[in-house]
Structures are given as C-alpha cells and as structure tokens.
Amino acid sequence: MVAKQIESIIKRACAETFSDSEKYIIDDFLQSTGGGNPANWTAIDADRFIARLDGADVSNEFLSGAITRLAQLAPAHIVSRVLGSDRDGDGVPLYEELKLGTRATEYDTPTVVAVARQKLYISRGSDMEL
To answer: Does the pLDDT value for residue 52 go beyond 70?
Structure first.
C-alpha cells in the first residue's frame, strides 16, 4: 500500500510545473543538500539529503516543492527512499508528514500525529462528528 501511495505521489509530482526562478531555488537546495544533480543520485546521496533535512530550516510547503521537483529529476527509487524516510524518528514517513501537515523535520508526539490524522479524515468528508 505504501508503495502505491508513493508511486501516486511521484506521478502527480511529475505533472507539476515550476517557474524558472522556482526551479533555480529548489534545484540549488537539492544539489547543495544531496550532492549534485539529482538525476545521478545514489542511495548515499538520498541518505545525505534526508540527514541534512534535520538542520534545514524549511517549511513543509518548501519541502513539498523540493520533493515534487526531486520526483521530476531523480530516479523513482531515490524519490521513494526519501518519501519513505522517517529521519525525525516519530514513526511517520516523510510523505505522510507532508500530507498531514505535521512537522516533517521535527519529532511529533503520538498525540500530535493522531490529531492531524483525525483532522485529515474529517476534512475528507467524513460524516463522523466529534
């Protein structure tokens, strides 16, 4: 199931468009944090990128854009490795952190994650009331 979700994210990401200035900013971020052109990244480069997210003071919105751009440039197995990572150790993979809106680069308590999941569930049109 996770593989299908990641595959769907990659497919949608490849359809996104960026302005030239957005590409410049994001590509520079990817190259400086991962180690060169993402098209040539190896698992080591992906791990380097994931590790450097710890010290990166970036919003989830920027990180989502960077992951979208990464999906356009890097091989799918590299993007899958990044999206499936859980560098902050809270048990929530990066792709889900971005979907939930929880802090992708900081540990979220189980309560914060549960509340975010509940909000997402309700916002998707559930008839359930709290």
So the answer is: yes
